[in-house]
Design goal:
By secondary structure, the chain is an alpha/beta fold. Helices cover 41% and strands 18% of the residues. It binds ligand G3I.
């Protein structure tokens, strides 16, 4: 009998002492990573072990899912055609098959969006379309994307989406015509509210809608994001603010970051850390920064549905030379242990 209890105890202790990030943080928030399609095979077991949220790094961006030939043949100047390529499909299937929640990134962005999307006849050499035509294209783009999710991935847990990404300058003003084709066509910021209105109309239930940006901890930008987010909250078309959180050990301080976080939380919206990485040339300093940051995040966990690191392992990072993540060649770094320590694991 004593032996029996010992076995039960050992199994229980093993389960509690999981070294998986997602298990250690289970009662606080989802732990996510961005992945490329190759990682659904190479390193898949390790992704499944540590993360319960995935954002495709590139595979749901407009240039990956808008189809020029199909749009030109659609017979309508208002109806862009959306198609998921093999990379996108691989990630969505991986998430659906393994019950990993998905963050969509992104509909409206100045980057990785083909110029033809804004031109007459979906033709790169065409004239800019009118605001009215662009509104119809925007609505149809969002509608078609959500319809494709529902048709091909009915069991996918699509729990949040970056509807608009990086629409602000650091001074809190909107990106202007030189900086964004969206502004070039609209001449004002109404495309932001329109995008959220359409996303709210077509998103499946349970899919929270986010406005996402970087340098979000710079006061002027914090205020710009906050003001627009509150306006959209009053309209009932937004659920949260995405803090990209591309940080470095020398800037911003964790205190400054926390100030922005508190301001966003005071809006009454959710906050997701969407693209966390922390550069620095000393792993001990990075580990301390990660620990201090996660301490702040855990303290505010009731407002934070998820924290996503922007890359599963340093060699996949867009800031590779900064070694900004929790793993290197899928081996845990000091930064990983620091993050685990916060929750006593
Ligand atoms: O797929 C091609 C490959 O065929 C080609 O051989 C190779 C040669 O350069 O390029 C590959 O495409 C690269 C793509 O990542 C996939 O790896 C692009 O050049 C490269 O520009 C692209 O970078 C992405 C970047 O966004 C582009 O804006 C990063 O992976 C992605 O992590 C990064 O993510 C952004 C967020 O969306 C928004 N916030 C900032 C963040 C970091 O820049």
């Amino acid at each position: 009998m004593a032996k029996y209890y010992l076995v039960i105890f050992l199994i229980g202790a093993t389960l509690c002492a999981s070294d998986a990030l997602k298990d250690a943080y289970e009662k606080y928030f989802k732990i996510g990573t961005c992945i490329g399609s190759g990682e659904t095979t190479e390193g898949a077991e390790y992704i499944k072990k540590h993360y319960n949220s995935i954002t495709p790094c590139n595979e749901l961006k407009p240039d990956a899912i808008l189809n020029q030939g199909g749009s030109q043949n659609s017979g309508s100047n208002d109806t862009p055609v959306v198609a998921f390529g093999s990379g996108t499909k691989a990630i969505l299937k991986f998430c659906e098959d393994n019950n990993i929640a998905l963050r969509g990134h992104t509909f409206v962005w100045h980057g990785q969006t083909p110029e033809w999307f804004f031109k007459e006849g979906f033709n790169s050499n065409g004239n800019w379309v009118s605001k009215d035509t662009m509104n119809k294209r925007l609505e149809n783009f969002i509608k078609a994307t959500y319809e494709l999710f529902a048709k091909d991935y009915p069991n996918l847990n699509l729990y949040s989406y970056d509807v608009c990404n990086e629409v602000f300058q650091d001074n809190g003003q909107f990106r202007n015509a030189q900086q964004s084709k969206w502004w070039q066509v609209y001449g004002d910021e109404s495309y932001i509210i329109n995008a959220f209105t359409y996303a709210k109309k077509y998103a499946p239930s349970g899919c929270e809608l986010y406005i996402n940006d970087y340098n979000e901890y710079i006061d002027t930008k914090t205020n710009g994001i906050y003001n627009v987010a509150v306006k959209m909250k009053d309209l009932g078309i937004i659920d949260g603010i995405g803090m990209q959180s591309h940080l470095s050990t020398d800037f911003p301080s964790v205190g400054q970051y926390e100030k922005a976080l508190q301001k966003f939380i005071s809006s009454g919206l959710h906050v997701i850390v969407t693209e966390l990485d922390i550069g620095g040339n000393n792993e001990d300093t990075q580990a301390k920064y990660y620990k201090d940051l996660f301490t702040v995040l855990v303290k505010n966990a009731e407002h934070i549905p998820g924290v996503t690191v922007w890359g599963s392992s340093d060699e996949h990072s867009w800031r590779g030379k900064d070694h900004p993540l929790l793993f290197s060649n899928h081996q845990p770094k000091k930064t990983y242990y620091a993050v685990m320590e916060v929750v006593g694991s």
